Queue: 2 jobs
Job 1
Amino acid sequence: MTKELIYASLVYLLTIFTIVITLYSFLDFTLLNFSIISIVSLLGWSYMIGTILSRPKREIEQNLLSLTQNIIHELNIPIATINANTSMLKKSTTDDKSLKRIQRIEDASIRLQKLYDELIYGINKEIRVVPKETFDIENLIRDRVEIFEEQNRNIFNLNLYNYNIKADKIGLEQALDNIISNAMKYSSKESIISISLDKDILTIADNGIGISDTELLRIYERYYQADNQKYGDGIGLALVKSYCDEADIDIRIESIKDVGTSVYLDFRKLMIK
């Protein structure tokens, strides 16, 4: 991730934050002024980032690091405030229309929090080596699957056991999220997604639309999508491959058109014995 991309992401994050606040103001008129202030702030931050990016490289790096720390500090508190207030509003609201609005704000806030966490992770990777942790793959996968199960979409069939590795845990979470979300996206809602651990190999398999041999050759290319009608930006598997290469995880994908896809992750080099 380049520094320019990181700071472009900051503008994107601030934009979403402003949208959430604006939605929130429709439920609570007293927040309307805060919404206007947020929009003005967004324009101000965008101008500052654009100004900094036009300066010499060394000065850019120094100023962007300071700017990033300030933005991150300012974003963390409003996110927590939105979450706390939406929870309170849900408890005191009975109108179905208002509850739906609150739910949309809550969903946007969750997405904002995820973007915030990913941005922090990306920045940390850019400025320092991300420390490796020792953790159990089984617990990690069950935690991730529990989040996906909240969508009430696919059924998951898990066959796992205790298996400890030492790796960049957040990076692995993101890689697994991409693989699992792909399995869901390219499968019917009634389809079962199987996740199993056999010896050192983790397999994530679906019974979805599958990938042809020609498409499979390009699957790791950034911005490539085998099915252009599906929503997405085409960078998920490219990020997964990049993480696996850095983490020393061998990845293999097998797929048959109209039958399904299986992703294999080999963790033997990371196993704690």
Note: Confidence is low (pLDDT under 50) at residues 228-234.
Job 2
Amino acid sequence: MKNSLKIFLSSIVLLQLNSCYFVNQGFNLFKYNLSAKPLDEIYKNPKISQKVKDKIKIIYDIREFATKNIGLKMNKTYTKYVQLKGRDYLTNVVVGSKSDKLEAYQWGFPFFGSFPYKGFYNYGEARDEELRLKSLGYDTYIRTAGAFSTLGWFDDPIYSYMLNYPTEYLANLVIHEMTHATVFIKDNIQFNEEMASFVGEQGGIDFLKSKYGENSKEYKLSFDLKDDDKIFSVYVNEFYNSLKNLYSDNSKNKEDKLVLKQKIIDSYRFEKFRELQKKFKTPGAYAWFPKLHLNNAVIMGFITYQQDASLYRQVYNKQGHDLTKTVEFFKYLQSQDPKDPKQFLKNYLNDVK
């Protein structure tokens, strides 16, 4: 009853915004929430296989670990299940950037602030938005997302396609999204995503250690995956900086910059990526990346999550390698309502040296 009332009231808010986008996306969100079944019903249903139930239980265990051992927000997220047919992801996410600048297009949302991406349940709607940006001269990128956080407005459910994800990936994903519902600073998406990425990665490793043990293949694999992510992050940042240096060169006109831009992209797509592959620890890591239509929007889509990854690791180190204390510090940071939370972190690190 409580959730139905929340959905009803939120529907009124969305309609008052008089936006087709909010109404369309809200309709799908409400539809999924209304069809979600409590996990107790799933476990008791004899028509659902034990394999499915066991995987759902792992996601629930991750959720329990995140609330009890990391200090993430306790709510009913991931306590319900939605069966989706013919779909292996949740949303299509559009990213845009100026063609001659690493400057992401920003979408404004009431209550939540500005975002450098916009999600759509329907691919056709995402494609329409992409074409709109292209008509304005922007580079564009559409990616899929397996989950997103409603920041506590709704009880985000487990979706059936999530059961196909490896446990190592699931632990990272679930804790990442739960972090957004715990700490979120308006108009600071770069901080929000980087911080959630760190907590998701470290929290996922801690969960695997707790569940499977230090000598388990799952726990050991998590370190290889983390190392590969670091290697890729360095590569993406170098890619970003090469383009940034080009665009800041005032001695070149726009046409020259666009020609040189393509040369940089080709370099990172081919020879630099081949060198990168030699460093990865897991087979096929990021093999899909050079197959993308690489442009400024793609780079901005990745840099949002990975520009200052080491900053959060330093905070974790200063908190005695204790993730619970680190999350508490991020909650404290949020309570200070800083205009620049990343600078807040840098000041903190300088003060405690």
Note: DSSP finds 14 helices and eight strands in the chain.
